[in-house]
Design a protein that fits this description.
By secondary structure, this protein is an alpha+beta fold. It folds into 2 domains: 125 residues, Jelly Rolls (Sandwich); 80 residues, Winged helix-like DNA-binding domain superfamily/Winged helix DNA-binding domain (Arc Repressor Mutant, subunit A), CATH 1.10.10.10. Helix content is 42%, strand content 21%. A 4-stranded antiparallel beta sheet has the order 1-8-3-6. A 4-stranded antiparallel beta sheet has the order 2-7-4-5. A two-stranded antiparallel ribbon has the order 9-10. β4 and β5 form a beta hairpin. α7 packs across α8. The longest helix is centred in the middle third of the chain and has 23 residues. The termini are far apart. The mean pLDDT is 93.
């Protein structure tokens, strides 16, 4: 894949406030890299001085409980940045980031990024909005931990649709993920998630084509207050 241009970088929400000169600075000595499904891009407790921008694909941010159970903290899709916290505070990575689909990434140096955050309030505010959005998603998923399986699976599918489409298209086709990943995202046992998905197919709430799921009917999500 070709190098990222300043114009392409400026089309992404976080960087839209920056002029071409500063976009060019951010892309100084950047690298275009690809990762295959299930590859670990950064590891928890690793040191790192780079940050990453997702150009195409979907990734998960994960950690493990004291009992060794995997927990998905958030999803990352096109236009999302990760690795920025360790790059800014000099601490170790706070979680693993793993490819859920084939990924095309832009690896950038942290020094220009941190410098621009200190100089430009709109850029710093944009990053704050990004972090707030991730925290809001995480809070909603934790709030649903006591909900029924159908609600949790529907919320997980809506979250996947938003992140994989890079926007708010809740009826976008989802990448062909293993049911285990959907179960982890919903916080359910794989068998429970599988039964729930089968029920949703039968009801016509979700459709499937070539192994890819899609939310065909949004009314069940509205009834559960998962979407406006």
């Amino acid at each position: 894949m070709s190098a990222l241009t300043p114009e392409e970088l400026g089309s992404m929400p976080l960087f839209a406030c920056l002029p071409v000169e500063q976009l060019t600075l951010l892309l100084d000595r950047h690298r275009v890299i690809s990762h295959q499904l299930d590859q670990v891009i950064v590891m928890e407790q690793d040191w790192g001085e780079s940050l990453f921008l997702i150009r195409d694909g979907l990734a998960k941010v994960r950690t493990y409980t004291a009992d060794g159970d995997e927990v998905i903290m958030s999803l990352l899709g096109p236009g999302d940045v990760f690795g920025e916290m360790a790059a800014l505070d000099g601490a170790t990575r706070s979680a693993d980031v793993v490819a859920l689909t084939p990924l095309n990434l832009i690896k950038m140096r942290s020094a220009p990024f941190a410098s621009l955050l200190g100089q430009l309030a709109p850029f710093a505010l944009g990053l704050a909005r990004l972090e707030a959005s991730r925290l809001r998603d995480l809070n909603q998923r934790f709030a649903l931990q006591s909900a029924d399986a159908t609600t949790r699976v529907l919320d997980a599918l809506a979250y996947l649709a938003r992140k994989s489409s890079g926007g708010e298209d809740l009826q976008a086709e989802l990448p062909p993920l293993a049911q285990r990943e959907i179960a982890l995202l919903a916080g359910l046992a794989r068998e429970t998630a599988s039964r729930t998905l089968s029920k949703l197919r039968t009801r016509g709430t979700i459709s499937e084509q070539n192994g890819c799921l899609r939310l065909a009917d949004l009314m069940p999500l509205r009834k559960r207050d998962l979407i406006p």
